[in-house]
Amino acid sequence: MRANTLPSERLLFERRTTPQLPGRVLVAAAVVSLIASAQVSSLTIVGRWYTVERSRGGIGAILEFRADGSVDFSPGAIVECTYVFSRQKVTLKFMDPDNRPQPDQVLVLPRLSLNKMTVQAANSKNPTPAQEWTRVGEPEDRSRLLLGNWSARNQDGQTMNWKFRADGSAVLTVTFSTMVGQYRLTKDFVRLRLDVDGAPLIEGAISWEGDVLVLWGERSPLKLHRF
What we know:
This protein is mainly β. Helices cover 10% and strands 47% of the residues.
């Protein structure tokens, strides 16, 4: 089944030819048009995404679409949680695959600056070495430095990426490996191929469910949440 396509700006804002409309009406219509146009243009696949559906062990896929037409595909672990930040401590609340709460995990931040932070797991029985996390991209809010994207290496040398959101939710992704490829987006249809011998061409329509990107393949839709 083919998904509903995104309406074009032409259909959303059909030009009206009623003569001599009051100036205030014309201004109001222009403002509404600009706001809606900005909302439509914000629906872009450029950026990092992770699969909504994952295995019980939390294994899924992370994709990064770039504006130049390149794409990275990485299988990896994906863990969502909520957090509370207070007095240089981050309390993480995780849920298991059956939606049952797990013991809280606490991270101590001896240093938190604009682009770096030092992170220490609060575990008195088995202390772990402090880690240096580096911000990825621009700060989202300079008055709330924890918000945004952070990257670090775990003890196995794998790349960890954290996203702390303003609504108190967070997501951790750990990539196992990365394959690169190219994609082409034409209106509501995407074609993607990885640079791996024998890799098939992946193609299908795209649609949106709120802020969730849906890629419609031959078998079943792939739903992606923005990182």
